[in-house]
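Lab meeting, action items carried over

1. Structure of the two-component assembly. Owner: GW. Status: complete.
Input record:
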Amino acid sequence: MSAALPLLILGFPIVGAVLLAGRGWRWPRTLTKLVGPGAVWLSFLVVLAAFYTSSYGDFTYWRWIKSGPFDVPMNLQLDHLSLFMCLVITGVGALITTYAVGYMGHEDDPSYARFFCYMDVFVFSMLLLVLAGNFVFLIVGWAGVGLSSYLLIGFYYWRPSAVVAARKAFVMNVVGDVGMILGTFVLFFQVHATTYSAVFKAIPRQDSGALELAAFLFLVGAIAKSAQIPLHTWLPDAMEGPTPVSALIHAATMVTAGVYLVGRLHPLYDVAIYAHAAVALIGAVSALVAASIAIVQTDIKRVLAYSTMSQIGYMFVAVGIGAYSAAFFHLLAHAFFKALLFMSAGNVIHAMDDNQDMRVYGGLWRQLRPTSISFLVGSLALVGVIPFVGFWSKELILGSAFSAGGNPVAVYAWGIGFLTALLTGFYTGRMWWLAFWGQPSERRPVAHPHEAPRVMLVPVIVLAVLSTVGGFIQTTALGLGPHLVDDFLAPAVGVFKAENPFALVLGITTMLLAALLFLTAYLFYVPLGERVAGFWDRLAEVSVSHPRPWSARFPRLQLLLERKLYFDELYDAVFVRPLDWLAVEGERFFDVPVVEGSLSGVATLVQDSAGGLSWVENGFFRRYALVFMGGAVLAGLLLVFIASRG
Amino acid sequence: MLTAIWLLPLAGGLIVMLLPHRFAKWLGSLVGLGALGLAVYAAYAFDPAAHGYQFVERSPWIQQLGVDYFLGLDGISVWLVILNALISLIAILATPVDMRGAGRFVGLLLVMEAGMAGVFLAVNLLLFYVFWEAMLIPAYFLLWIWGEGPRPLYAALKFVLFTLSGSLLMLVGVIGEYVFTGGRTLNLPDLAAHPLDPAVQFGLFFLFAIAFAIKIPAFPMHGWLPDAYVSAPVPFLVAFAGVMGKTGAYAMLRILIPLFHHPVLWWDWNQVMPVLGVLGIIWGALMALAQRDVKRLVAYSSVSHMGFIVLGIFSLNAIGQQGAVLQMVNHGVIIPALFLLVAWIEVRTGTRDRAALFGLAPRMPVLAGVFLLVTLAALGLPGLNSFVGEFMTLLGAWGLSPGLAIAAAIGLVLAPIYMLRLFQGSMYGERSAPAGLHDLRGRELALLTPLLALMFGIGLYPYFLTRVMTSLGVPLPWS
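Predicted assembly:
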């Protein structure tokens, strides 16, 4: 029975996707509404069943390939880590697909079915990614989520920007796939195995150089999928997709696959210490860079995209220093609050007639109360304010980094993480005050917005509740209370032990400073005349009332951040344009004259001189063939002659 | 039974050519179906546990020269024989009924099928050569008479000149092989069992290698391909691109490596062919990036895919070579589907210019969905068939030299760029294409269905194909 559970978990979404792809666009919409999210809900129920019955194991279904030592079974591994991931994927996924029933309501029937088909393909691929029991099927799932991401980013295919963004995401993810493929090769030639169990058993006996190489190659895959520097440029553009997609794929689940990968391969990274340190450093730098870019973005979804990149940076820091369960706790927390933020932002965007520019919102607090409260809950969780879930998980990561004594990288990572936490407070505050506070902007597209329908509100409220109380499953950031996540994941990723008495004090300080910056943003982004009278007014007198005072003072910094550190321009100049140039010039100067020209000169001559079919009669071809035949016969005779002599 | 596999389409083809045009298509389809049935039956009766050739048919043929009529089927050829029969059947079914000279066209397709089947079945070098030439003759005529575009004659002539040069080099090679072995036999197993003097092997290697490389075509012998593919009528192109290129790759596995393994294994020479394979992968992909004509783009993508096959074959280990054979089948499944789709798009819109195509998806959702699947298979999406082949050829290449695998992996990154440009450019766009374009018809979808099924099937269970390929690979150090 338990061998059937992983197949059932995978089966519901894929069957849903096939049904929707085959007939869905001719179905009545009600059926699409049932099948699309229903498949995910059913899968969630099976995951819950597996959770309660503790059906763990490594199940082999068929032999995928065997060629000499290259022997890959089709096996699925249901352990604590994959079950944890399955809970997040199907749980949050079910809420988001339900939300999408309302959000995508404006689309016509074929697009509506197409959307849920893609979503189900995504859920299937993501589940395959986490359930795979060997490296090859990991890559299959890995590429599958890349594909669904591509499809969903390009969902509005009549927008050229969406089409380009989709292709960009796909190609960048393929770069990551290639890294994973080559990493698998390195491991295979080291240990001659491809299943997790066999590879991890053999790892301690291996040469560390090759393991470092493999770990770095897998890291390429991880940073491409998780949008870490330098393969991050696709994620902000991915916001071209519908908002539920941003919530599910580009915030809650897919982009955390890199974190899952490092956690899954922890026996490898525990040995490959340089690659492991690189994970933490890349995470820390990405967190800081993304948070600083988020300060200047004006598109509400792009701010959330950069904040996603930044929060995943935290998770990379955690897995990079070996605090795996802290990373997965933050992954869970992030899935709650970032899905919440995206979906509340989706409600706002819906109410604002699909305008995503925060500068034209303003004053939504009074008009969209439930959505505003949800967004505030998400914001506070993102900033890391006690008691919201983000506080417990983020402080756990920062505390672990600060306490990890023997690890020189961890301290730097903590420092950068601390700075990032402050920036997070500021940009989140900016987003909140700009969009929801003050007076409605004169440029606002809709003067009297309507609150979202119930099907969109209920999932948001569920996530708001989870973001509020979800943190109480593990409160070790304060050094006391339950530690359910640690306990649950201990069999899969071990326990991270590091204690430092100052960590607690620093954690509280971080939170207070971040919260203060959240409030400070009020002074910057709510015009003086619209502020609440009283204490803030007096504080405002000593501050500047210009909306963007810091940027006025540092225009170059502002530009640098608005241009996202010029990564896009760099890649365009280094890869995209030279490639096209090479292709065009290569064809003009090599392929046409040399490769094609080698015999076509003769052909052209024949055709030009003869024209039409008459070339057959004029004898040129016959002569040509004759010469060749004669040459062949001569060569043959020569060979006979040589052989008879020898 | 093996004789029937090539004799049936030959006889059928000749009869179809003589009958009135209106019977041509259904009779041709019937013959093609019969050939497919025979091939599938052979695979069904094939014993996966046994080594060596099965269903062997052997009798003296030219007794004065000691040449046998010798046919056999092994774990490699069995799949290619099926592929040949399947793709040829699809080609016949894709032939428009109102085509000029449809009877002769279908007949020639069947004759070509017979020739290709013979190439895959022959176990005697001279017999192989005869079939090799026999499959070219119908191909010449199909390209000459039914060629499309501005310069069909030019394209056909170029193809003739290239392949004829190759064939003649091979003829010299066959004579040389016969002479140097002392004129006793030309049966492949005997030849492989008694390798020639290394210096002679070296000379003969190049004669055969060039002949096969032109046919594949491997870089830099691909000069004939773009023009020939662009001017070829699509039903012919399906069989031409889908199967005929594989005869060259198959010959490399069957003849070049067993008979002339000394140059292949000799110091740096073992790197030459793989490097050509890698160059083909990257160059084909680059050229595909530069194309505006979608048919030409697909043609160049084919050059890139064939590079993987060459790389796998000359990785000289079982993984790479099994991957190469898988890739032959995969390419034979994907390329016909791509060319058919491109052709149907051209029929509907009247253009093949990438820049002139836009917004087709809203007008033809089914075609768009199928095109997407085929695009994904072509760019090697993990889970579909091409991924298995590419993964294994790269793994094999890594076993030979990691640098080769890394360089070849660049092709994996370029593939989505050109394939998605093609797909997105034609299917998506700010504006929808003009109304009145007919979506994929049921008949057309039915033609693609077996190909789509194979794309998924091979991706999920490739071991079904590779488990019989036991004869491949030079033993590896670690096995």
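2. GW to write a short summary for the group page. Key points so far: DSSP finds 19 helices and two strands in chain B. The mean pLDDT of chain B is 86.
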